[in-house]
Amino acid sequence: MLEVRNITKRFGNLVAVKDVSMSVKTGELRAIIGPNGAGKTTFFNMISGYFPPTKGSILFQGRDVTQVSAHQRVGLGMGRTFQITEVFPELTVHENVLTAAEVAAGQTLRMLPSRADAKLANDVASEMLALVGLAAKADRLVGELSHGDQRTTEIAMALAQLPRLLLLDEPTAGMGDQETYEITALIRRLHKERNYTIVLIEHDMRVVFHLADYITVLDQGALLAEGRPDEIAASEAVQAAYLGESR
Amino acid sequence: MSSEAGTNAAVVGAGRTPAVPRWVMLIAVWAILIAVPYWLPLLGGYTALAGRVLVFGLAAMGLNLLLGFTGVLSFGHAAYFGLGAYGAGLTLRYLAHSTPLAMLLGTLLGGLAGTLFGLLIVRRRGVYFAMCTIAFGQLWYYLAYSWNDFTGGFDGLRDFHREPIGLGGLTLDITDGGNRFYFFLLAVFALAVGLLGLLVRSPFGHTLRAIRENERRARFLAIPVERQIWLSFSISCFFTALAGTLYALLNNFADPLALHYSLSGYFVVMCVMGGMRTFWGPLVGATVFVVLQDYISSMTVNWMSFVGAIFVLVVLFFPRGLLGMRGRRGSA
């Protein structure tokens, strides 16, 4: 599904990501973790196409997308959410998700409402709202919702574009325990029941170890470890890196 | 952000149910507009005043597609209004005695000028965009102002008048200023506004609102932001130009002031005063504006100071415009 080959990113003299590779299979949930400053976000931004790597290449479904722009990658089937909530606050939840569905269905130039097409996009939007559990709040303005519900709306927007790969940038950032629990349950459901392939960055280790099939650990821009959660938990190198951070 | 604060916000928000259902609003608007010739004289008004409201209302509603629904400010829409007016006037005077042809050519002139100009400025944002639109608008003003032989210069373009419209065997005589011409204006207005309403509710319209709400997010949804803004600008110019052709027909006259940037400012004032996030807001704004102008300018030449004071009051007490109070969704 996603094949990252030896990518490096330099910002001037700073090497933010150094020769990292990663291979994500269809149906897998991969978490990227690491101490602060490990290069997680830089790594993630290269996958989503926010900026290209200095060296190395990225393959998505066998196609080289290294130089493909972020919004073109959306068109190829990469859906993403952001670390900072990015929604359309003065539109309703349903309108947020519907717009995403319409864009994905290639209707950006359709200037008259057509019943058949409208139903298609509407059905996708309704389905995704039901899937993430926001159907009851569909007619509320997103700007008035809780932080957790706004983030969930974002996930529904990404889903409405019918992605093959879902990229989640710190899905529980800024959330309380209850909201974290709910969003974790949602991601687990998307993964287990709907077989979405998911790559996420996450700080909350409970969430990571609860969700991930495989974990990629970065430290100081380099790949430190890779493996199943139990292997990572047992890894001395990983423990050292995290302890080193607290020292 | 703590989750507690978030939960509170969720409880406080009352949702969007508008105070008046949409169909009630629609019936009310059209009933009031159709009945104008019967109730307006009772209030001491005259039908031509209502005609002005429709013309400026349409121009402001056209601008509002860009301003309220796309979130892009143009301070130069008088250019397209004026080009529409001059296009219609010049057609009637030099080309053919045909009202429909005058409207068609006037609308095309204003709309295409906007479409071409839009290509140049679509990457500008905010104040830079607005400044570009003013500059381009003033260009046409000075052209009309100085080209005496062709446009009549400062005195305006005269010696043309609206012609009866042939409809197969029937002839619609709109040459007198009576109710028949008002209903003609209303029919054109209704068609144009109906189109605008469909546009706003289409997937295209949804992408415009998305751009208004969060341009960065819109880009990451793979919405081609520049192209959509350009289209929104162009379409908005076509509607404003159409209003301009009606203005020329209404007055049998086109003057350089129809191109002047101060009129562009009035259009923006109409949108903001009426409620630019609502569909009908600009019409309400235009009504207030035109009626005040008519009423106060008969008493003092400084009518603009009064309109300005009222504008400030509206902005202070109705920050979302007069119709914005009606709940968020005025979009028809």
Average pLDDT of chain B: 87
Percent of residues in helices of chain A comes to 40-55%
Number of helices of chain B: 15
Radius of gyration computed on alpha carbons of chain B: 20 Å
Chain pair sharing the greatest interface: A-B, 48 and 39 residues
The major pleated sheet of chain B works out as: 2 strands, antiparallel
Short account of what is shown:
Chain A has helices at 40-48, 70-76, 93-104, 115-132, 147-160, 177-192, 205-211, 229-234, 236-246, and strands at residues 2-11, 14-24, 29-33, 55-60, 63-64, 78-80, 165-169, 197-201, 214-219, 222-227. By secondary structure, chain A is α/β, with parallel strands linked by helices.
Question: Can you walk me through this structure?
Answer:
Chain A is α/β, with parallel strands linked by helices. In chain A, 40% of the residues lie in helices and 24% in strands. Chain A is built from nine helices and ten strands. Chain A has helices at residues 40-48, 70-76, 93-104, 115-132, 147-160, 177-192, 205-211, 229-234, 236-246, and strands at residues 2-11, 14-24, 29-33, 55-60, 63-64, 78-80, 165-169, 197-201, 214-219, 222-227. The radius of gyration of chain A is 18 Å and the shape is globular. In chain B, helix 4 (47-67) packs across helix 13 (261-274) and helix 5 packs antiparallel against helix 6 (99-121). In chain B, 69% of the residues lie in helices and 2% in strands. Mean pLDDT of chain B is 87; it is low at 1-16 and 328-332. In chain B, a hairpin with a 2-residue loop joins strand 1 (165-167) and strand 2. Chain B has 332 residues and is mainly α. Chains A and B meet through helix 2, helix 3, helix 4, helix 5 and helix 6 of A and helix 1, helix 9, helix 10 and helix 11 of B.
